[in-house]
Design brief:
It is built from two helices and three strands; from the N terminus they run E-H-E-H-E. The chain is an alpha/beta fold. Strand 1 (about 15-20), helix 1 and strand 2 (about 45) form a beta-alpha-beta unit.
Amino acid sequence: MPRLTKPRALRPGATIGIAAPAFPIDAASLHAGTKALRAAGFRIRQRRDPTRSRGYLAGSDAARARELTAMARDPSVDAILCVRGGYG
């Protein structure tokens, strides 16, 4: 069985990317969450507005895939936080 690889711990000053690869989030919840993360000492990076929706999803399939891929490839992003669960 392969060994579990653990990610490094986030420290204050790290950049957290906010993505919406499934459902959108309401503006009040997004604001409260990013405010709490900033208060904890983290920087926030958002590619676009996670509150925007297309039907019940947070944008088109292509747009959501582009956003998450770009966030994963960005060397300045230390962790990615998905704002909502779901599928799509």
